[in-house]
Amino acid sequence: MTYLLDANVLIALGYTRHQSHRQVGAWVSELRATGGANFATCAITELAFVRVGAQAGYYVDVAMAKKALHVLKTRPNIVLRGVAVMLLFSLASIISIPACVRVTMM
């Protein structure tokens, strides 16, 4: 199964000083231990990772935040997904949700 990480999870996973770093790290480790788990990011979440990293003071500047993102993406089981693939993941998950819990966008 592939988990599409949102910006909050990606940030917590990548920044050791983040308050949820240990919890997210434990979740990722647990899924990896069971085997078959992959983690995906997309351009939007990666941009948030770099922006928050530089603005929140996790890293000195954007260049260092980009380097940290690159290191994070070289970890096993983390892959880059394009926006089109991200939208397909989203549509697939909506389709599989029972009608009684679907949210209708107006």
Notes on the structure:
This protein has 106 residues and is mainly alpha-helical. It has a single domain, classed as 5'-nuclease (Rossmann fold, 3-Layer(aba) Sandwich), CATH 3.40.50.1010. Helices cover 57% and strands 9% of the residues. It contains 5 helices and 3 strands. The chain has helices at residues 7-14, 21-34, 43-55, 62-73, 83-95, and strands spanning 2-4, 38-41, 78-80. A 3-stranded parallel sheet has the order 1-2-3. Helix 1 packs across helix 2 and helix 1 (7-14) packs across helix 3. The protein is globular, with a radius of gyration of 15 Å. The model is unreliable at 97-106 (pLDDT under 50).
Say how many strands there are: 3
Tally of distinct domains: 1
The chain-level structural class is: mainly alpha
Rounded average pLDDT: 76
The main sheet orders its strands as 1-2-3
CATH architect. name: 3-Layer(aba) Sandwich
How many angstroms separate the termini? 31 Å
Note the beta-strand portion: 5-15%
Q: How many helices? A: 5
The CATH class is identified as Alpha Beta
For CATH, the homologous superfamily is named as 5'-nuclease
User: Which runs of at least 5 residues are low in confidence (pLDDT < 50)?
Assistant: 97-106
- Shape category: globular
